[in-house]
Design goal:
Elements: E1 4-7, H1 10-21, H2 36-47, E2 52-59, E3 62-70, E4 87-93, H3 104-117, E5 124-127, H4 134-142, E6 146-152, E7 157-164, H5 165-172
Length: 176
Amino acid sequence: MTFTFRPVDPAGDAALLHSWVTHPKAVFWMMQDATQEDVERAYAQIAADEHHHAELGLRDGEPAFLMEHYDPAHRELAGLYEAQPGDIGMHFLTPPADRPEHGFTRAVITAVMTRLFEDPEVRRVVVEPDVRNTAVHALNAAVGFVPDREIQKPEKKALLSFCTREQFTAATGVAA
């Protein structure tokens, strides 16, 4: 599967993103009760933030998933671990599918990691999924993430995990 990326357009993509982030499958995205206006506002704030970015992953030119990346020294994990030069934080969301496609989510996280490692400054990807999100823990492990420890964020207990370029390549065979 081949994906391309483009920045989220907060106004233009709000309806689509609202349908994704409020779906029961996206419970760990923590926007279940958000209105479309809430979603537009949240992504407008991200678009205006130099330390946080949101992109849509496109398949054949159509939105297929959402990826966010952020500077963990300034957002999400600031003060919760000692950020190192070259760290980048990441979230991704695959939308609900009428007919699930085997291997799709793994292809998405592989594409996301490849995209992040395209930046030569990125040395390590950091994630902090909810400790209860066992499905994403398995996906993270499949692309080379190694859990470090549980941390308490304001909104959740999270599993802090890291993946270096070398770990990603060893796990996937994809050069980073």
